[in-house]
Amino acid sequence: MLLTNVPPHLGGTMTDNNSSGDLRHLDTLDRDLARFSRLEMATQYVARPIVGPGISLVFILLAGLGAALFFGQTNNAMIVIVATCLGAYMALNIGANDVANNMGPAVGANALTMGGAIAIAVVFESAGALLAGGDVVSTIAKGIIAPESMGDPATFIWAMMAALLSAALWVNLATYVGAPVSTTHSVVGGVMGAGIAAAGFAAVSWDTMGAIAASWVISPVLGGAVAAFFLFVIKSRIIYRDDKIAAARRWVPVLVGIMAGAFGAYLALKGLKKIIKIDMPTALLIGLAIAVVVWLVMIPVIKKQSEGLENRNKSLKVLFGIPLVVSAALLSFAHGANDVANAVGPLAAIVQVSQSGDFTHDFSIPFWVMVIGAFGISFGLFLFGPKLIRMVGSQITKLNPMRAYCVALSAAITVIVASWLGLPVSSTHIAVGGVFGVGFYREWDAERRLRNARAAMPDRAAYSAEERRRRKLVRRSHFMTIIAAWIITVPAAALLSAVIFYGLVTVVGTA
Q1: CB atoms inside a 10 Å sphere around CB 141
Q2: Which of 204, 224, 445, 506 has the fewest CB atoms within 10 Å, counting from its CB?
Q3: Does residue 12 lie in a domain region?
Q4: Is residue 503 included in any domain, yes or no?
């Protein structure tokens, strides 16, 4: 018997009328499913930009809730809760902006994936903040404002609150426009602006501010010069040699040893100050010992690693990959140990003053404040850091492992030299200055080689002015944006802080 009106996959046949009706039904179903699919994709696209801010808001609220549980029954509990939320907001911005400078070169050189860089930064930034973070912040951000000029604890608290909020807002804005700025300088500007608003210009230590202003120039110039020098060494001693592999076997262990020694001295001097105090001569001796040991260890390692490599520049990248990853991790540890403490310093000051009323002495940073800083930078880096990491790593100039190695090494050496000279420097300015130094050196070297080639072949056509501009190896738009952001960081944060301070005083009515 012939089955009718039974679906074909069950062995039946379809009549013409029913068959056409089912096909129309299937077409309608496909169209509806396609609409749902497009709606789902549109919803995801619209929701994506608010995922990061949403998670950030939850973190800030949890930090405030934790402060409420611990300090809810104490005096000025609400002030501590609000300040904790602002500290969490500041920590998120540190992760989104400042940490990118340590990871950008390694990612841009393809020595690390974006996920690997974020994982390493989260672990080592948190470890640096929690294990070796500074335990004492000098009175009001390194003596920028005379504390006795504040008059009373309430004025001091509002000034620190304004400094914390203004610094966080400025770093947030800088991250949004893609400009890596110094969070430490943002805090300094915030403290200065609130101090001026509270006690006048006479309250500011202008000698300290002058030294900080000098660091705006010294940090990037010194970092760029050191990075350019080591790129010159790599090019002249390895890349431009006929037998590149033999030259690499001789010089890469030396360069890795120098890097290890520099980071050894750097961490001994800056990263371990909470555990043990080490002076400059001792730190340099520690660095020298580490450099010699690593140099001797790397000789057979590089020899084995270079076996079978072709005699070309691409082969050399393999030899710098692991040192570059290690340097990124060590930079993150040192950054967590130093800059995080500076950024959460105003929060520590607010907590101590609200509890004790004493605002004329140094402020200890409670462990829970460092925990907020550590988790905040981790969330900030994970949620918002990739934008700045890509910008520093690949959008200023093209980086490979050799160039990124020069940037990382310059960061460690520049901090040591600046500490020896007693100059306050910014790790952000040093790292980005190193990227600029590498890029501008490549431009100069390419121009020099072009002139030499033209001298050898006078009949060779010269590049037009337009072509010469196109062949620039440093993107001038990013260069100008970053320099402008650096110049206005302190005054912008100061002005914003003064406005916020006046607003707080007007609303609360206590000053």
Answers
A1: 24
A2: 506
A3: no
A4: yes
Which amino acid is residue 323, in one-letter code?
A: P
In contact, 180 and 105? CB cutoff 8 Å: no
For residue 26, how many other CB atoms are within 10 A of its CB? Answer: 10
Asked whether residue 232 carries a pLDDT value surpassing 90, the answer given is yes
Give the integer Cα–Cα distance in Å for 99 and 198.
Answer: 32
Cα–Cα distance list, 497 to 192, 208, 504 (Å)? 8, 19, 10
Q: In the chain, how many domains are there?
A: 1
pTM of the model: 0.79
- pLDDT digit string, tens, across residues 414-454: 877 776 766 667 777 888 899 999 999 988 888 888 777 77
Measured CA to CA, the distance from residue 85 to residue 65 in angstroms comes to 9
Report pLDDT digits (tens) over 262-310: 888 877 876 666 667 788 888 889 999 999 999 999 999 999 988 888 8
Q: Tokens standing for 202?
A: 């006479």
The per-type count for the chain, helices as H runs and strands as E runs, is 16, 2
Cα angle 331-334-340, degrees, rounded to a multiple of 5:
115
What does the pLDDT average to over 195-211? 85
Residue 98 CA: distances (Å) to CA of 163, 224, 331, 436, 438: 18, 18, 12, 17, 20
Decide if 33 is inside a domain.
Answer: no
What is the span of the domain harbouring residue 277? 59-458+472-508
Distance from C-alpha of 378 to C-alpha of 178, rounded to nearest angstrom? 19
How many angstroms separate the first and last alpha carbons of the chain? Answer: 98
Distance CA 174, CA 343 (A): 16
Tens digit of pLDDT for each residue in 104-152?
Answer: 888 888 888 888 888 888 888 888 777 766 654 554 445 677 777 777 8
**Amino acid (one-letter) located at 202:** A
Q: Is 355 helix (H, G, I), strand (E, B) or coil?
A: helix
